[in-house]
Amino acid sequence: MTSSTVKAPATSAYWEGLRDGSPFILMVVPFATVFGVVATDAGLSVAQAMGFSVLVIAGASQFAAVQMMLENAGIAFVLLAALAVNLRMAMYSAALVPYLGPAPLWKRALVAYLNFDQSYILSVTRYEARPEMSVTDRAAYFFGVASAIAPLWCAMTLVGIFAGSAIPESWALDFIVPIMFLAMVSPMLKSSAHVAAAAVSVIVALALVGLPSGIGLLIAACAAMVTGALVETWMERRKA
Amino acid sequence: MSYSNAEIWLIIALLGVGTFLIRFSFLGLIGDRPMPPIVLKLLRFTPVAVLPGMVAPLVLWPAATGGVPDPARLLAAFVTVGVGIWTRSAIWGIVAGISTLYLALWVFTAL
């Protein structure tokens, strides 16, 4: 076996990942562009808006942070709301351990940085379908998927930043963010537990809207999480 | 927005580090140890627990109309949720929601 054939599988796994990830371009382009527009509109500098997309690189939480900042919430509440949106990624991290746990630390760190909904879901589906994949191939596939998404995320944020200043107020940009959040959440309403959690979140947040920014949302989110877990437990017991 | 430049950078930096640590948690630090089932269960509900509560006041009392409920925005919100649930796709929800928003804004101004 020559050295080129030893190297070939990882390379092809990378390209397969890139190919499988490319349909998500359709989703990344509008999301990232709108983030650039909204961040500029909120008063962030070019560097700050790019800082969000490069350093945080997590769509929903970037929008959440900018929204909380628009409401002049305390810094701790901005961080709490935005990080809470990302907590699901701890689950992704745990789910990747059986597949990528033996990879070198720098690869695991890079996987962590690039762990989005899309790269996680595609990769785990692939790993489950092909248990014979080597750890090197798995990492290569993951990086392939991420390569289709991450550079474009940053580039389109920049496009949005420059497009944003040219957009007139009559375009009702204020309401693009609520629409994006609603659109992200509604496909997740797949069980009565999820619906109950969302309903409690809405009701408590509206009831506590008079509290300083962020506090009401924090209480609403905690109440909603507990509601979701309780309803799910209750449904499981009823089934059993 | 009433933050200084330094405060904005502090938010970005802490959010970047925090998000990385969440993503790195098990893969890099904790390893293959099982999480308590109750923690897993609560984590699963974080997006649906946070985002609806954040959006609800913005839908009912938009700042752009001085906090007065706006029929165009309400309609757009309902269409977004309906299409999002129906198609199970965020993209179609956004397309439908934004189209509804502009159509409704145009119709209500024309009236």
Describe the largest sheet of chain A.
none
Provide the low-confidence segments of chain A as ranges.
1-6
Helix-residue proportion of chain B: over 70%
Could you tell me how far the N terminus lies from the C terminus of chain A, measured between alpha carbons in angstroms? 55 Å
Low-confidence stretches of chain B: none
In short:
The complex is a heterodimer of chains A (240) and B (111). By secondary structure, chain A is mainly α.
Outline the fold blueprint.
The complex is a heterodimer of chains A (240) and B (111).
Chain A: H1 3-21, H2 25-42, H3 46-56, H4 59-70, H5 75-86, H6 88-100, H7 105-113, H8 117-129, H9 135-164, H10 176-185, H11 192-207, H12 215-239
Helix pairs in contact in A: 1-9, 2-3, 2-4, 2-9, 3-9, 4-5, 6-8, 8-9, 11-12
Chain B: H1 5-30, H2 37-44, H3 46-60, H4 71-87, H5 90-110
Helix pairs in contact in B: 4-5
Give an account of the 3D structure.
The complex is a heterodimer of chains A (240) and B (111). By secondary structure, chain A is mainly α. Chain A has helices at 3-21, 25-42, 46-56, 59-70, 75-86, 88-100, 105-113, 117-129, 135-164, 176-185, 192-207, 215-239. In chain A, helix 4 packs antiparallel against helix 5 and helix 8 (117-129) packs antiparallel against helix 9. The longest helix of chain A has 30 residues, at 135-164. Chain A is globular. Chain A starts with a helix and ends with a helix. Chain B is mainly alpha-helical and 111 residues long. Helices cover 78% and strands 0% of the residues of chain B. Chain B has helices at 5-30, 37-44, 46-60, 71-87, 90-110. The radius of gyration of chain B is 20 Å and the shape is extended. The interface between A and B is large, with 94 and 77 residues.
How would you describe this structure in keywords?
heterodimer; A: 240 residues; mainly alpha; B: 111 residues; 5 helices
